[in-house]
Amino acid sequence: MKPPSPHPEAKDLAAGERPRPPGVPAERTAAAQFDFGKNWQLFSEHALTPEKVRQARRDFARLLQGIDLKGKSFLDIGFGQGLSLLIATAMDARTVGCDINPTCGEVLEANKRLFFPEVAAAPVPVIIGSILADAVLADLRRASPEGTGLYDLVHSWGVLHHTGNMELALKNAASLVKPGGYLILALYNRHWTSPLWLGIKYLYHKSPPLLRQGMIHLFYPLIYLAKLVITGENPRKQTRGMDFYYNVVDWVGGYPYEYAPREEIIARLQPLGLEIQRFIPAQVPTGCNEFIFRKD
Ligand SMILES: C[S@@+](CC[C@H](N)C(=O)[O-])C[C@H]1O[C@@H](n2cnc3c(N)ncnc32)[C@H](O)[C@@H]1O
């Protein structure tokens, strides 16, 4: 079993982290991190379809279950390819996005133009920088639609475990939620194989482009088989509008990488005034657990 025919830009993707542009402060860039933006760009150009966008809309509504977004302020931390941010905008939320990788800003605009004609004229303010940085946190407070510095919903799907400091990222994300508001998170679960994956991701991070390509070719069939055995379903069948190949690249390359079991995340957020409302366990043991917290 082989990954789908590699497209010409795949070797750029394997090149990994981006250099820091001159004059840009470190906290504003994704230097020394897997280049998620490039992976999202290739995903959007080669794999995203109207059917996948429809699936993403359905799954986002399922995640929100019962939370009305109309007129609510909504912050998406690490918006990536921008699907959740655009869907929330289409659901009449007043949205703001944040991502450390500037390519994600370009991908968001392209996906908005191609797949979300109903919000083509709606501004979606975006702040490029790290959720770990005080200056970015201050920008996000200034950008809050009601001018309170807080948001009705803070959403961050599959992000805070990639920041290099999940504890601080959780604290900063939690600090942006209004009393009575929601914090919606997806975070990697802890499994006995997690330290092994940390080693694999570190190796990818330190490897030259050719070796990175080789690792994707090696892990694609292994992950395919593991998922097939664990779920009993076709691994190419994805949720949230995602694509198996680009998810494998994201999974093998996604570094920094942290993970935590359900109880640990709940225990970390409780002292910050966040109570768990709903929990959706990961589909596979190393996958993302989904949490919906409400602030006192
Ligand atoms: C796995 S992607 C998830 C994208 C999207 N949230 C989704 O649901 O598909 C992780 C995203 O987090 C962003 N990211 C990583 N570290 C970040 C940080 N410190 N601050 C803000 N965004 C960050 C990456 O650039 C990337 O777009």
Helix/strand order, N-terminal first: HHHEHEHEHEHEHHHHEE
Q: Segments where pLDDT lies below 50 for 5+ residues?
A: 6-19
Characterize the largest beta sheet: strand count, sense, and whether it forms a barrel. Answer: 7 strands, mixed
Helix content: 40-55%
Mean pLDDT: 92
At the first level of CATH, the class of the domain at 24-190 and 258-295 is: Alpha Beta
The total strand number stands at 7
From the N-terminal CA to the C-terminal CA, the straight-line distance is: 50 Å
- Ligands: S-adenosylmethionine
Explain what the structure shows.
The chain has 296 residues and is of the alpha/beta class. It has a domain at 24-190 and 258-295: Vaccinia Virus protein VP39 (Rossmann fold). The protein contains 11 helices and 7 strands. It has helices at 10-14, 36-46, 50-64, 83-90, 102-115, 134-142, 166-175, 194-206, 209-231, 244-253, 262-269, and strands spanning 73-77, 94-99, 126-128, 151-157, 177-188, 274-280, 288-295. Strands 3-2-1-4-5-7-6 form a 7-stranded mixed β-sheet, with helices on both faces. β4 (151-157), α7 and β5 form a beta-alpha-beta unit. α2 packs parallel to α5 and α9 (209-231) crosses α10 (244-253). The protein is globular, with a radius of gyration of 18 Å. S-adenosylmethionine (SAM) binds at residues 30, 36-37, 77-80, 84, 98-101, 104, 130-132, 157-159, 162-163, 250.
